[in-house]
Amino acid sequence: MTIELSDVVREYRVGGQRVRALDGVNLHIDGGNFVSVVGPSGAGKSTFLHLLGALDSPDSGSIKFGGREIANLGDDEQSEFRRHKVGFIFQFFNLLPTMSAWENVAVPKLVDGQPLKKAKPDALRLLGLVGLADRAEHRPSELSGGQMQRVAVARALMMDPPLILADEPTGNLDSKTGTAIMELLADVAHERGTSRAVVMVTHNLEAAAATDRVITLQDGKIESDEYSSARS
Ligand SMILES: Nc1ncnc2c1ncn2[C@@H]1O[C@H](COP(=O)(O)OP(=O)(O)OP(=O)(O)O)[C@@H](O)[C@H]1O
């Protein structure tokens, strides 16, 4: 699994002003890596994540996902791509409050037009993988923050996607729980050889330092791109 960005530009126009959220980004991301994206507020981190996940399209440049150009997909192709190729993890978990843990994990199958019940064995297996086998019938309100994020990680894995995108996944957790989630995400990135990558946006430099590669954005450009010495 490889993602290749070439000369990616994303510009917003607000009033008469133009803001270059991403200003000519060139980057290669390989599977098997846990990558973090850091930088000051407004540097372009969320814009970058949205482009990788086909939630948004660049104004110019190319984004190749496993050799396939995804920069200019139509709406239907974009959502099909997202459903099958990308798992999303958010700061505030985004679980459905009326559903149990296993049902939340199975939601991507529901969105893909399959019955929830049919996905139950897979959902239970994934809950086991994230250490929550005994919480399958709990609702989100009956879980701790760390447990809710584990459910969200399991949900992101439901379609077995080659790319997991995480937006501040530890931002709402205490540091011990955050470290455990970081370890889980590292396992998720490493467990399938080179066929899956995890890309995480974070303000937490300590969390970023624990990943394989730290990309620093500044004013829409890559300011630095460093691999950890342990894995380079
Ligand atoms: N929908 C939008 N409309 C107009 N401008 C936007 C929009 N989204 C982002 N921007 C601008 O693009 C730039 C990059 O924003 P982005 O959200 O990608 O930064 P960020 O690094 O994720 O910031 P933060 O750490 O605060 O979340 C900022 O100047 C922002 O104001």
Automatic annotation (TrEMBL):
Listed Gene3D superfamilies: P-loop containing nucleotide triphosphate hydrolases
This protein's GO CC annotations: membrane protein complex
Gene Ontology MF annotations: ATP binding; ATP hydrolysis activity; transmembrane transporter activity
Domain of life, source organism: Bacteria
Pfam families named among the record's database cross-references: ABC_tran (PF00005)
Keywords: ATP-binding, Nucleotide-binding, Transport
PROSITE patterns in UniProt: ABC_TRANSPORTER_1, ABC_TRANSPORTER_2
ABC transporter domain: residues covered: 3-232
SMART domains: AAA
Keyword Repressor: no
Similarity comment: family membership: Belongs to the ABC transporter superfamily.
Protein name: ABC transporter ATP-binding protein
